[in-house]
């Protein structure tokens, strides 16, 4: 998730809003150890656009090439 749109913020914070997580600690929190991949997608339907940063980041994670993932 890389966009700052309301929708993406809701997705990131949804667990906290719903009371999930350990004392409000959810996977996107730095204290959890989570990292947010950078994205050039303007919305959820653009994550898989050919030659996009979003797609390259997802491919790097799937291939286990974590050092190639661009983070926010």
Descriptors:
about 70 residues, mainly alpha, 2 helices, about 0% strand
Description:
With 72 residues, the chain is mainly α. It has one domain. Helix content is 31%, strand content 0%. It has two helices and no strands. The chain is flat, with a radius of gyration of 13 Å. The relative contact order is 0.18.
Architecture blueprint of SSEs:
Elements: H1 6-17, H2 53-62
Q: What is the helix content?
A: 25-40%
For the secondary structure, the number of strands is 0
**Could you tell me the mean pLDDT?**
82
Counting structural domains, the number is 1
* Individual helix count: 2
Low-confidence stretches: none
Kindly name the structural category: mainly alpha
Q: What's the order of the H and E elements?
A: HH
Reported for the largest beta sheet, the result is:
none
Globally, the shape reads flat
In whole angstroms, the N-to-C terminal distance is 9 Å
- Beta-strand content estimate: under 5%
Rounded to the nearest angstrom, the radius of gyration is: 13 Å
Give a quick summary of the entry.
The protein has 72 residues and is an all-alpha fold.
């Amino acid at each position: 998730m890389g966009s700052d749109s309301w929708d993406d913020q809701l997705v990131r914070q949804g667990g906290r809003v719903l009371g999930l997580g350990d004392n409000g600690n959810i996977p996107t929190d730095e204290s959890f150890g989570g990292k947010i991949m950078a994205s050039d997608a303007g919305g959820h339907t653009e994550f898989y656009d050919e030659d996009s940063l979003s797609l390259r980041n997802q491919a790097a994670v799937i291939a286990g090439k974590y050092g190639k993932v661009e983070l926010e």
